[in-house]
# Entry
Amino acid sequence: MAIVELKVPSPGESITEVIIARWVKQTGDVVEKDEVLAEIDSDKATLTLNAEESGKIELLAAEGDTVKVGQVVLKIDTSFKPEAKKEAPKAEVKVEAKKEEKVAVQQETAPVKTSSQSYATGTPSPAAAKIMAENNIASNQLNGSGKDGRITKQDVLAALSNGLPSAVKALSNSWQGNRDKERVKMTSLRKVVAKRLVAVKNETAMLTTFNEVDMSEIYSIRAKYKDKFKEVYGTNVGFMSFFTKAVTEALFHYPAVNGMIDGDEIVYSKYCDIGIAVSAPKGLMVPVLRNAELMSLAEIEMGIKGLAIKARDGKLGIPDMEGGTFTITNGGVFGSMMSTPIINPPQSAILGMHNVVDRPMAVNGQVVIRPMMYVALSYDHRIIDGKESVGFLVKVKEMLENPSRMLFGGKNPEEILLGL
# Structure
């Protein structure tokens, strides 16, 4: 008998403990090599624990236990092998038997005739049943006035007008009126997020500046080229790629927004690793798009899509989220009109996008309806001055309202032609 011990792998540097979030398999199960056995929560991500060999497993830790990196949490007895999947034998059935079986089934499924009284008593008509379902009313709460006690539409409407208790309760709100409580242990990831957010508020001089963007040009480009873009690249063109491109260009002109404090020094990054905040089953995650300043819109769009899929499937690893020089978060997908996003340390700034709303705007002395979005830049005032923060946000606004600027270093084609 050969026993293989499975140890907790290291999720990343500086992490010494993890939590067994969920066992996918249980003691006594026979598993195959590389099969997922458990989910492990670390300070930075959720990882999976896979079988190194095939065999029968024995769990040495329970769900919710905090275990050390390198600790043995499972044993595999390799003398047990998974059973080979057997193909179902093809049954040979005589024609006569099939005919007899068919007749038997027909006899068993034949409807049983009952008297009209037993069928109709307390039975709602189709119209009545629809209203009862919408208002959470049971048949035993009503007295049918139809033939043989059948519940009619008028019976249901009359009950509602008279204030049927259950109907009134169902229509009031979603609460059930009890006073129960539920306690759920915080995950390691949630604990770390909570500590970091409080630290940001306490350790940085965080301010937020706002502006608004006319999204008309972006809308026009998407409407004109969305079908061809999807045909060529296999994905839709969204707002995030335009914002990411505009941010990388604006960071070139305002390098302090792309910097961070390290002790007594300021580190200015000569590249743009953009963190994209995405909603995942385990909470908010911020995977990083590396060297976004060198990417085309299509490359940015496909990169963001790939990271979002990995976040949704719980496959983001530590390398996907390490680093990052600037972060973009889009609360608009949830309907947010305006917010003050919190900096993702050790970065010095974060851009918040919001929902697009048609609003009346004054354009050339005329009131016109335009799709407008509020944008917010939260920044660390210790490294970024007000002039730089406002200038950065204005530069992002200018390029989004005139997307051709993104191709010419933030300038108009005419300015390039004139050498300005």
